[in-house]
């Protein structure tokens, strides 16, 4: 379905973002629950989600807070996990970089894994979309995600220990990221980066303060970059 106006692009974005509701609800509720267990109250948990709005970084910070890690380690680790947002922004710039400042600022705040994956996939499939259509689609894609992230952070924080362990809300974390990255495995470099990151994360599981995640992420990016360079050299040699 091709978009023709910003309004229809927004509606299409909402529809494409709806499937993420299935994982955002338990994901956010789990964060709220763990935030309370880590010593935050309901208001603090909500403010955390409002200000950061980045699930992986929030969970990383909470885990380190529970481990009583030094504040500098908590901040550095959360920042490192969230550095992917800088790459997301750079990737989105060719598509919406000429939008008005307030729209770019809003998009920057609402750039989360789900909105980025859905939007970039759409923009690549339909390069003829105008900038207003792209911005509208991006905002539509995040519309089902952001409000539910806030609401169910509060729900999880309020319910707290009343949520039985048998509900296993933590299933939402791996499923969310698997659902997002699966369609993005389009090249050998993508596969290599993911494979190396997984292997290194398992090997570095015992590194203190969950720093193994950062090590694995860096290793995955290096591997992906090296594979891309190898493929480019091979292509150049063949021509």
Distance between the termini: 38 Å
| Coarse shape | globular
Question: Helices and strands: which structural class?
Answer: mainly alpha
Instruction: Give me the count of strands.
Output: 0
| Unreliable sequence segments | none
Largest sheet: none
Query: In what range is the share of β-strand residues?
Result: under 5%
Structural description of this entry:
The chain crosses the membrane at residues 20-40, 46-65, 135-159, 165-181, 188-207. It comes from Sulfitobacter sediminis. It is found in: Cell membrane. Keywords: Cell membrane, Membrane, Transmembrane, Transmembrane helix, Transport. Helix content is 74%, strand content 0%. It has 13 helices and no strands. Helix 2 (21-37) packs across helix 11, helix 4 (55-66) packs antiparallel against helix 5 (71-82) and helix 12 (188-203) runs antiparallel to helix 13 (212-238). The model has no long low-confidence stretch (mean pLDDT 83). The chain has 2 domains: 6-182, no CATH class; 185-239. By secondary structure, it is an all-alpha fold. The chain has helices at residues 6-17, 21-37, 42-52, 55-66, 71-82, 84-96, 101-109, 113-125, 131-142, 146-159, 172-181, 188-203, 212-238.
């Amino acid at each position: 379905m091709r978009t023709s106006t910003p309004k229809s692009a927004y509606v299409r974005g909402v529809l494409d973002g709806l499937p993420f509701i299935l994982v955002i609800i338990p994901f956010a509720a789990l964060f709220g629950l763990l935030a309370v267990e880590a010593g935050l109250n309901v208001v603090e948990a909500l403010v955390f989600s409002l200000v950061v709005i980045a699930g992986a970084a929030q969970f990383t910070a909470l885990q380190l807070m529970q481990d009583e890690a030094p504040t500098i380690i908590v901040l550095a680790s959360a920042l490192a996990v969230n550095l992917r947002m800088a790459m997301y922004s750079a990737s989105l710039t060719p598509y919406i970089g000429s939008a008005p400042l307030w729209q770019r600022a809003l998009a920057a705040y609402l750039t989360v894994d789900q909105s980025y994956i859905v939007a970039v996939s759409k923009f690549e499939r339909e390069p003829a979309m105008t900038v207003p259509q792209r911005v509208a689609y991006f905002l539509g894609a995040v519309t089902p995600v952001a409000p539910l992230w806030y609401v169910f952070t509060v729900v999880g924080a309020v319910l707290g220990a009343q949520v039985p362990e048998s509900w296993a809300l933590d299933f939402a974390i791996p499923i969310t990221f698997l659902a997002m990255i699966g369609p993005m495995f389009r090249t050998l470099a993508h596969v290599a980066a993911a494979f190396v990151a997984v292997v290194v994360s398992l090997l570095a599981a015992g590194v203190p303060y969950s720093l193994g995640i950062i090590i694995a992420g860096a290793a995955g990016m290096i591997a992906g970059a090296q594979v891309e360079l190898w493929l480019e050299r091979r292509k150049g040699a063949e021509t």
